[in-house]
Amino acid sequence: MTRLPAGRHGHGKRSRTRFLKEETKMPFVQISLVPGRTPEKKEELIKNVTNAIADTLRIPKERVHIFLYDVPKENIGRGGVPLSKIDS
Length: 88
Hints:
This protein is an alpha+beta fold. It has a domain at 27-86: Macrophage Migration Inhibitory Factor (2-Layer Sandwich), CATH 3.30.429.10.
C-alpha cells in the first residue's frame, strides 16, 4: 500500500484518491539500443530525455522513468533481415 508523504495527510478518501491519481501520472519511457554505448553516453541520454519530457509535460523530473534496453543486433530486423547481417 502506498503511504502518503509528510504534509499530504488529508481527511477522508478524497485526499488519498487525489494523491494516488497524482502519483500515477508518471511517464515511463523505453528506449531500445544496439549494445556498445558507454555508461557515460547512457547517462547523458537519460538526463537529456528526462529534461525534455519534464519540460514538455511540465512535471518534476523525479516523475520521469527511463528504461534503456540493449538489444543484440541479431534480435533486430530491418527489411526482413537481422541487423547483424546488414551491419556486419
